Amino acid sequence: xxxxxxxxxxxxxxxxxxxxxxxxxxxxxxxxxxxxxxxxxxxxxxxxxxxxxxxxxxxxxxxxxxxxxxxxxxxxxxxxxxxxxxxxxxxxxxxxxxxxxxxxxxxxxxxxxxxxxxxxxxxxxxxxxxxxxxxxxxxxxxxxxxxxxxxxxxxxxxxxxxxxxxxxxxxxxxxxxxxxxxxxxxxxxxxxxxxxxxxxxxxxxxxxxxxxxxxxxxxxxxxxxxxxxxxxxxxxxxxxxxxxxxxxxxxxxxxxxxxxxxxx
Length: 264
Description:
The protein is mainly alpha-helical. It is about 55% helix and about 5% strand. Strand 1 (about 20), helix 2 (about 30-40) and strand 2 (about 45) form a beta-alpha-beta unit. Helix 2 runs parallel beside helix 4 and helix 10 (about 220-230) packs antiparallel against helix 11 (about 235-240).
């Protein structure tokens, strides 16, 4: 267990519930939840499985075979947005969503845009072709899909973000869930050798740099690098060596990988 907090006392007082996260440090959805846990000063442990290598018990825990999964002894939750809203309800200070209703609604929309459209393009088009298919399933990269994502779909996403992000700071004051949800995907874009063109999208490029430079993201970088340095079956050992707060139990398996039940 580690305290991920604004203060040691906050982390230690909340660790008694033994919060556990199931999911890889490489996932933007896991990254979002871990960043929020850090901002709220909540201690946790993690079972850093790649979902394709989850066992049958993982299927029972996460019926869509997706990550993250959150458990705290009271609930088991399987969606990053639901998890973040639950954390906000249970631990409202410091807030990670704006309070004013119109701002809160816009924050939820931008989080949804990130989780759906950005997830579709950056994870299931870009990262899937560069990393998941070749590294996990042994399927060659489809260059046509990859090029379409880079040349058509990502520019459409970035044009929209350029109209939404602030020139300075974050969307609603201090960094919060909508900022985190958007920025989290650009780590995977970088893993896929894609970076925002700062001349074409200067506001978005600067916003992403600000957000990813925040401590809530930077503290995860060593664990991301450890995960990327070895094949999935060896990631737990690499993360243990890197000092990740690993759970005692794992839902991972060394069996052949299997996809989830959803097409995207």
